[in-house]
Structures are given as structure tokens and as C-alpha cells.
């Protein structure tokens, strides 16, 4: 059966753990496996800007012995001119996997429906599951594991990162707290799924507007931009609405003394996080960014193996 990775809970708890174990192994021995030798190609398509995702997939596919085929929607027939499913019909005859950064989750679902190669979500408006694999690897490294650890996300809960933290961290057995202003709380259906997963995995989900209460005793404090790609027109309104949801030293003080700070990047210093936090001793953002490479290599190896 062809396996796709469109949202964090497209893998089971055991499968997520297996991918993270493989990521740690590939980090220790970067050139241990070359399943894309040939080279086989992997298409990586962007509707939105990217630094980390683009570079980590390019380098990762190359290190696995493959050839990265990176292009933008604007330079292709996809996006208005050709449907995601017709695009998939063509690509699947030439490449071993399709990776796509886009807007609507629905496009990814259409792309993957019946596709004969794995389709990977490289960020949509709703989820950023590749980022979460890297984040969980980083938490494992700095906190010795994920189960029972408490993660507090301060910011736009109704964003790709807010939703992915809920699902992926619930799968990893964590206690997840989301602190967002009214109007920016996570989507109800995602919260329901996360609560079900957390109940099975021994974790928990808390959602609210009280930053101090939700960050209390956290092992990991995370945030993300207040203005995600595609929402630039709402910038001023959002800067007003998110006042009070910045991660400052005071907010870090509510967490455990040895808490780590993470951010998927790019960051807007002085908005969602103060410079002395993101550039301070508790921040592990550069490890987190590096882990995109190892986590995505593991994901590709695993998906190709499963989809044989
Ligand atoms: N974190 C992340 O996905 O970064 P890019 O937008 O640079 O890919
Ligand atoms: N929430 C951000 C993540 C960027 C990696 C966005 O969608 O722009």
C-alpha cells in the first residue's frame, strides 16, 4: 500500500517512533543508506517561499543517492492550469515521491488520491508535519525523550504549527498546552483528534488564553510567526490581537528552569519572541533547523520502504 504523509497522524505512534529512531541513526551516520541510488528523482514543489524545507529536501534526497527535482508552482502547469491529480498522474511515472508545499490541504488530498508514489506535505495552511518530526527529534535529544514531557505553544493556535503540535506531540505521548488569543484557538476537529490520541498515548491537551497558566512547568516552550504565509493582509490586525502572546524572559520564567525554547523559523524578533529568548541559552533553534534534514531523510526512507 502506498503511504502518504499529509498530516501528523497519518502515522501511528509506533510508526512515528520508528521514523524518529531512524532519523537519529541517520544523524549519527549521515551516509548510511542510499535507497534512491540510480539516481531516482523526487519532485519537490513550492507554492510558497522556503529556505529550510527547500534546502533540507534537496540535500537529503542527494544524500540518499537520489536526484532532487525542485520547482515552483508558478513555473509549472500546476495551480489553475492543471489539477493536482493530473499532475500526480504524470509525476508518478517519473519520480519516486512527491513533496509539496501549498495552501489548501485539499490540494494535497487530491494529489495523493490514487497516487502510485508517496505524497508528502511540506507545509499547508493546516499542518506542517515534516517540521514536527524535526521538533520531536530535537526534544528527544535535549529532554531524553518525549513521553510525559510538557510542551507549551504560545501564539496562533489555528495555524499549521498549532495544529501539528497538537497531533504530533499527542502521538509522542506529550502533554500539550496551547495558549492563543480568542479567535485564534485551534480548530475543533483537530483538538478532538488530538484529545483522542493523547488519551491513548498517556498525554493530555489543554487549550486556552492564559499564557502564565499554560506555560507553567513546561519542558518545552514554542512559538511561531503571528502572520503565516498567505495572511500578509491581516498583519496589522494580528499584531494588535497577539499583543500579550510574545515569548519573553518573563514567560520563559513560568516554565521549568531547564526548559528549552524552539521556533520553526523564520522568526520575527520583537513580535512573537524577544531576541534575548530566541538568541539566549535556552534556545535550541539551530539544532531544530538541522534536524529537518535528518527527520525528512528518515521519513523518505520509511515511506519508500512501506510503499514497496
Ligand atoms: N520552518 C520552515 O519550514 O522553514 P522554511 O519556510 O524556510 O522552509
Ligand atoms: N506558520 C508559518 C510556518 C513557516 C514555516 C507559515 O505558514 O508561514
Helix-strand layout with pairing:
Elements (H helix, E strand, L loop, with lengths): L12 H16 L12 E6 L5 H12 L3 E6 L11 H8 L5 E5 L3 H8 L6 E3 L7 H15 L6 E5 L5 H12 L3 E5 L8 H14 L2 E5 L2 H5 L4 E4 L11 H7 L7 H6 L5 E4 L11 H4 L6 H22 L2
Parallel strand pairs: 1-2, 1-3, 3-4, 5-6, 5-8, 6-7, 8-9
Bound molecules: phosphoric acid mono(formamide)ester and norvaline.
Give the key terms.
14% strand, globular, four-stranded parallel β-sheet, binds norvaline, 308 residues, binds phosphoric acid mono(formamide)ester, alpha/beta, single chain, 12 helices, five-stranded parallel β-sheet
How does this structure look, described?
α1 packs across α5 (129-143) and α2 (52-63) packs across α12 (285-306). The strands form 2 sheets. A 5-stranded parallel beta sheet has the order 7-6-5-8-9. With 308 residues, it is α/β, with parallel strands linked by helices. The protein is globular, with a radius of gyration of 19 Å. The chain has helices at residues 13-28, 52-63, 84-91, 105-112, 129-143, 160-171, 188-201, 211-215, 235-241, 249-254, 275-278, 285-306; strands at residues 41-46, 67-72, 97-101, 119-121, 150-154, 175-179, 204-208, 220-223, 260-263. The chain binds phosphoric acid mono(formamide)ester and norvaline (NVA). Phosphoric acid mono(formamide)ester (CP) is lined by residues 50-53, 123, 131, 264-265.
What can be said about this structure in brief?
The chain is of the alpha/beta class and 308 residues long.
Strand content: 5-15%
Largest sheet: 5 strands, parallel
Radius of gyration: 19 Å
Record field, number of beta strands: 9
Order of helices and strands: HEHEHEHEHEHEHEHEHHEHH
Unreliable stretches: none
Widest sheet, order of strands? 7-6-5-8-9
Contiguous helical run count:
12
How much helicity do the residues have?
40-55%
Average pLDDT score? 98
Label the overall shape: globular
Distance between the termini: 7 Å
| Distinct small-molecule ligands in the complex | phosphoric acid mono(formamide)ester, norvaline
User: What class, by secondary structure content?
Assistant: alpha/beta
Amino acid at each position: 500500500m502506498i503511504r502518504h504523509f499529509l498530516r501528523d497522524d497519518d502515522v501511528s505512534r509506533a510508526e512515528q517512533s520508528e521514523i524518529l529512531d531512524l532519523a537519529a541513526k541517520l544523524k549519527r551516520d549521515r551516509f548510511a543508506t542510499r535507497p534512491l541510488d540510480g539516481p531516482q528523482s523526487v519532485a519537490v514543489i513550492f507554492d510558497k517561499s522556503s529556505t529550510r524545507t527547500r534546502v533540507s529536501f534537496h540535500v537529503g534526497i542527494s544524500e540518499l543517492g537520489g536526484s532532487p527535482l525542485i520547482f515552483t508552482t508558478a513555473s509549472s502547469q500546476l495551480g489553475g492550469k492543471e489539477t493536482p491529480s493530473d499532475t500526480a498522474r504524470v509525476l508518478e511515472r517519473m519520480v519516486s515521491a512527491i513533496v509539496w508545499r501549498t495552501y489548501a490541504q485539499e490540494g494535497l488530498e487530491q494529489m495523493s488520491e490514487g497516487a502510485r508514489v508517496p505524497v508528502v506535505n511540506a507545509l499547508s495552511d493546516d499542518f506542517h508535519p515534516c517540521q514536527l518530526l524535526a521538533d520531536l527529534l530535537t526534544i528527544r535529544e535535549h529532554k531524553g525523550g518525549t513521553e510525559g514531557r510538557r510542551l507549551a505553544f504560545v501564539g496562533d493556535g489555528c495555524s499549521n504549527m498549532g495544529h501539528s503540535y497538537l497531533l504530533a506531540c499527542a502521538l509522542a505521548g506529550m502533554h500539550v498546552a496551547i495558549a492563543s488569543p480568542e479567535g485564534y484557538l485551534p480548530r475543533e476537529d483537530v483538538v478532538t483528534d488530538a484529545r483522542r490520541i493523547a488519551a491513548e498515548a498517556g498525554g493530555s491537551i489543554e487549550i486556552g488564553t492564559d499564557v502564565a497558566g499554560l506555560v507553567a512547568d513546561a519542558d518545552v516552550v514554542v512559538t511561531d510567526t503571528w502572520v503565516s504565509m498567505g495572511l500578509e493582509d491581516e498583519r496589522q490586525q494580528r499584531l494588535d490581537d497577539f499583543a500579550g502572546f510574545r515569548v519573553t524572559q518573563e514567560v520563559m520564567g513560568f516554565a521549568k528552569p531547564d526548559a528549552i525554547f524552539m521556533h520553526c523559523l523564520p522568526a520575527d524578533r520583537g513580535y512573537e519572541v524577544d531576541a534575548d529568548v530566541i538568541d539566549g541559552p535556552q534556545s535550541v533553534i539551530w539544532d531544530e533547523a538541522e534536524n529537518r534534514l535528518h527527520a525528512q531523510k528518515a521519513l523518505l526512507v520509511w515511506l519508500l520502504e512501506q510503499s514497496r
